[in-house]
């Protein structure tokens, strides 16, 4: 097991969905950019990432360059030799999952009605469109309410509202 990391940043390049020859499995190779403060100075870090399968298809469909994304996965070291024979090492994130982390600009100016992305987690919010068509942002409502333990009733005098 490698180093498991979570990164919140912005997609730095145009998203291009590709497929593995033979298996036809979808994948994306891209860069996520995030800011880090070092000795009081803000520095932008660029980290290569790869993601496969349905997650890659969803990223290509709903996100684009500049959109915010939350990635999680393992760090992997890439070793390569350039034309001059110099050895190089770079770190990349082999993402195993992602979360939408902000409003996507990809379909901002589209006349099509916004459709919600497929749910990524069991407790993901349900997307409900507002009736006001001038507002492209959907309203979110939780779809999961924790059940009370069996045999437990909330006393009415303890309800805070």
**Nearest-integer average pLDDT:** 77
Main β-sheet, spatial strand arrangement? 1-3-4-6-5
Instruction: Report how far apart the termini are.
Output: 48 Å
Quantity of strands, as a count: 8
Instruction: Please state the overall shape, judged from the principal axes of the Cα atoms.
Output: globular
Order of helices and strands: EEEEHEEEE
Rounded to an integer, what's the Rg over CA atoms?
A: 21 Å
Give a verbal description of the structure.
- The chain is globular.
- It has about 160 residues and is mainly beta.
- About 5% of the residues lie in helices and about 45% in strands.
- The protein has a domain at about 5-100: Beta Barrel (OB fold (Dihydrolipoamide Acetyltransferase, E2P)), CATH 2.40.50.
- The strands form two sheets. The protein has a five-stranded mixed β-barrel with strand order 1-3-4-6-5.
- The longest helix has 10 residues, at about 55-60.
Which features would summarize this protein structure in a list?
161 residues, mainly beta, OB fold (Dihydrolipoamide Acetyltransferase, E2P), two-stranded antiparallel ribbon, 1 helix
In short:
Helix content is 6%, strand content 43%. The chain is mainly beta. It has a domain at 4-102: Nucleic acid-binding proteins (OB fold (Dihydrolipoamide Acetyltransferase, E2P), Beta Barrel).
